[in-house]
Amino acid sequence: ALPICLFVGTLDSSQMLAVNADSGATEWTQRVAGATAADLVATQDTVIVPSFDRTMHALDAASGTERWRFTGNGWFVGRPLVTPDAIYATTLGGAIYALGRSGTLTWQAQQNGLEFRSAPVLVGNLLVVAARNGTILGLDAASGDVKWTKRAESATIDANGAAMGGGVFYITSTHQLLRVDPASGDIKSFDVQPPKSK
Questions:
Q1: Would you say the C-alpha torsion 179, 97, 91, 41 has a positive or negative sign?
Q2: Residue 158 contacts residue 130 (beta carbons within 8 Å)
Q3: Residue 1 above 70 pLDDT?
Q4: pTM of the predicted model, to two decimals?
């Protein structure tokens, strides 16, 4: 049986490691996946690695062997969203991809001029994606058709969003909390100032 492992991607050495959570021993190391600064997604037997080589790699969790790869139009920086049926991922090149679980392209939506760093969020059959410049889109998760596009003025979104209470929430680099209505795309903004240091 596969031991419980922590999967670590590196930026400087372009290595992927599986580290045994009990012993700390390295179970395997490989360089196929390239440099990454994104969150990895581990499923039961596969590790999805978004990479700076413009490719998303699917690795066998037990051995590190590459099962498949998908090359996009830019760096994969944000964490991909993995569901039982699909993988949704975005790039710094403005692309939004839906893949089957075997890595085959289902649809692509291109948004020229936008950079995506945050993870896609799924609310029912709607995929919500936020660009770094505050542009937020709602897409049909099955087809990729854009249902709405809204913009949060003066917002920079690098952090992942979260769906809760009927909304999708993002925190911006200027300490705004954004609440996006998935049905309409309407955005409410709240100032959330960090506590002052003493």
A1: positive
A2: no
A3: no
A4: 0.90
